[in-house]
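Regression check, pyridoxal-5'-phosphate case 423:
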Amino acid sequence: MNTLPGHPHFAYRGDVLHVEDVALDALAREYGTPLFVYSKASMLEALGAYQRGFAGRKSKIHYAMKANSSLAILQVFARAGCGFDIVSGGELERALAAGAKGEDIIFSGVGKSRAEMRRALDAGIACFNVESEAELEVLSEVAVAAGKTAPVSLRVNPNVDPQTHPYISTGLKGNKFGVAHERALQTYRRAAELPGLHVVGIDFHIGSQITTQGPYIDAVDKVLDLVEAVEKAGIPLHHIDFGGGLGITYNGEQPPAADALWAELLMRIDQRGFGDRTLMIEPGRSLVGNAGVCVSEVLYLKPGEQKNFCIVDAAMNDLPRPAMYQAFHAVVPVARHDADPHTYDVVGPVCESGDWIGHGRPLNVRPGDHVAVMSAGAYCMSMASNYNTRGRAAEVLVDGSQVHLIRERETAADQMLKERRLP
Ligand code: PLP
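Current build output:
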């Protein structure tokens, strides 16, 4: 067996890549391509590292479902005891449909609408993570009108550089997220005065794909300073929510293990005297990113003067991260041949030069072969679109030797369902 780095449940058996006990080429033949395939064991193993890290603590893990919000994925986490961090009314409905209770849900995001607030209040969610003074005022109004009290936490922006891609950096002064550290105390005072609100906590989230522990340590120190100041002002904080952001191995990165990171952070939190609070986190990518691959068929090999292209049937509508963030996904053959590899730009069929999956990749493939685009469990299917009227891919969840089709391939008719022709 030959396990792929960062993907403990993806391994070559002989020359064929397997996920858990299932051969990926068999799945591609049965369900077609592009096909997302997820390993349940990988998800539970990733979650287990956090659960070990928080063992014996008052804590709650809210899976940041934006990373992958397919219902069956949510069910895996709900059944394993997770709550959900949501950022829209749509995610609220998905979480509830997957079996979550309102009390398991926290609501983040800079632009919650009144209708979303009202629905979340009716569902009895655990906390609104409020991101601005204006949002506080509106939430209080909505809650008063509904005859309810909204539990709130303020998302504070600790102004820490997470040293990641600028589009997924969220805790710097120039970012749109959270309440500035310097304004946090006065905003808490206002929250405590407003009639429709009940202050329950504090939260932050500094960015995504963070691969070192330094930014977390800086952010935790700054936020604990604030907890002290807010409580000195007579506003008790029952929970501290440390957000998500822990990175995964896409291309040799070595992020800290979740349990090791939390051993370090908890030591500091205990030293500062806050270890008895309810400790919350909102991981997304680190729970699902390396639990999924996208299997794609090689359509054509196109030699060029400057480059060779390997044209596959997955595209930027299925795998938006390279086009959005110049992100790296490893691309490996599903069935290995032993001839010499050639170097290709791996690209999709969409009519954009930005539609690429990998540049300069050594691959030994022929038309009709399958490749696996690795680390495709997070921010792929949940960001997929219908650009070029391409149906979204099917999804399969593997559990040992069992295979569950968790999403059927979208047809052109599905895509046109909500449209109306002119009379
Ligand atoms: N919490 C909030 C508020 C977020 O915005 C995000 C991602 O953007 C997350 C949690 C999850 O981040 P990650 O997937 O990097 O763990």
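Comparison notes: The domain at 108-283 is CATH 3.20.20.10 (TIM Barrel). The longest strand covers residues 292-303. No diff flagged against the previous build.
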